[in-house]
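Quick start: load a record and inspect it. Here is AraC family transcriptional regulator:
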Amino acid sequence: MKTWMHQPRNIDVSHYVDRYWWLEVGESDSGYEPALLIPNPNANLIFTLPTQQYSYHQEQQELVGQGSHLLHLCSKAISINDQGSIIRLGIKFKAGALYALFGIEGSETQNTVTSDLSLLHPSFTLANIRQLIDTDYASDKQADQIKYSVDNVIERLDNLFSQVIQLAKEDRHSILVRDALSLLADNSSVGIETKLFCSRRTLERAFLRVTGVSIKQYEMMMRLDAVLMYIFKNLTDPKNDTRITEPDWADIAQYFGFSDQPHLIRQLKQAIGHTPNKYLNTRNLIIDVYGDFE
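Running the structure step on this input writes:
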């Protein structure tokens, strides 16, 4: 399995795009297990071969199709049921970016897929996508050649999205939410409306309109993502998938801002269907696989 991820080098593009990522799984990669995409507010534009099938399962809903597509924000966990060889070149957008770039209100499209990318931008043509996912750069080459080729793809993506952002339309809602998201990166949402010089109701309505989730939902998504990455990085040995320590869940709950251990367990089980201990025992790949490769 081959992966890489990289932030945009174009500063203007980075206002809307969180990172670019590559996922390639060959027939011989028998150790690759279907992953779970945890609830998150980030949409992913996925470029792939026109014959490449995709399958996402969410509770009673099945999202299937083939070719490049836009996976909108997920308010519920989605099982990624890819089969066989996989090539994915992804663009992980920042929360609310689709509103400014394409006029998409998140609350109307969450937990859905857009398969006709021409509806988003005229640059998303089959020819342009084929250029970007030319697998020559992902084949077994010398390290310096691979680095050069990946750099070339990043440059092409920056150029492509430099065109896309020219059509971006910022309004008072998107500007307010962007400022709110900047504050939420390091602060609780309590009282941030005073720093933004607006009422709480105005902020809540704009946030839901632009991102598709409430401020409370957004904070919980970010908190759970941080907990899962902490578990993934610190509590298991990546070489043999065994525990390296017996965690104190009460301390972990307090550190990540949950009211107590039962609160953490309830939220985690609701998000991924597992308690923390069960996750440690099964070691399924339950991370934000589209954009967070570890």
